[in-house]
Every structure is written in structure tokens, then in C-alpha cells.
Amino acid sequence: MATVREISAFGNRVVVTGIGLITPLGIGTDETWNNLIAGRSGISNVASFDATGYPCRVAGEIKNFNPLDFVSSKIAKRNDPYSLFALAAARFAIGDANLDFASVDRTRFGVIVGSGVGGMFT
């Protein structure tokens, strides 16, 4: 059973039941956490494009992400990596929450996605 985390936001009660992460430190909460506590960095030389002409050639890129682990090839082809990361993180969060969709009011929950940049390729 997932740990329930309660937050008070603007006078309203918010209950966080699941967390999903896709980060430069790892795919999923466990891998990200293990790399974080081991002191590893997610920052490295840019590998996703030729950064030769840029003043900064290091970044925190997502590595070893296979969108087909989370979505169909049709969806993977039609979406920016940012969107695929969000879908994967949402699947992790739903799994972490251990939700039974048959017994919950689907209008009473949602997924919050945070990103530093968004869809750079689109």
C-alpha cells in the first residue's frame, strides 16, 4: 500500500497517494532515489543533439528511456519526448498509488506534471 501524503494548499486538503519520476537521475522513483543517495549526478555532456556551437554543452538529459515500455508505438511516434515522459511518470504515480479504478470517483483525482522546459522538439 502506498504512503498517503497530505498537503494543505490554499485552504484545501490535497492528498498525494502516488509519485512517479522520470529524471536525469533515473527512470522511476526507485532508480532516481538510489542514484540521488549514492551521490550520482544526472548532468553530462549533451548527447541528444550536436551542441558544438552552444556556449554550454552539458545538461540533465533523460537517458535509457524507452517509451515503448509505457505506450504503444503509434503514441510514441506522435508525441514529443516531454509528453512521453509525462505519460510514463503518470503511470508510475498511478502504480505507486495502488488505485482500484473500479472503486474510486474518477472526478475526484488527477495527475500533476512538473517540467523545467516542456516540449523542446515541437
Basic shape? globular
Give the oligomer, counting copies of the same chain as homo and different chains as hetero: single chain
* Beta strand count: 6
Class derived from helix and strand content: alpha+beta
Radius of gyration: 17 Å
Which short descriptors sum up this protein?
122 residues; 15% strand; globular; 6 strands; 3 helices
Walk me through what this model shows.
The chain is an alpha+beta fold. It has three helices and six strands. The strands form three sheets. The chain has a two-stranded antiparallel sheet with strand order 1-2. A two-stranded antiparallel ribbon has the order 3-4. Strands 5-6 form a two-stranded antiparallel sheet. Strand 1 and strand 2 (12-16) form a beta hairpin. The radius of gyration is 17 Å and the shape is globular.
Quick recap of the structure?
This protein is an alpha+beta fold and 122 residues long.
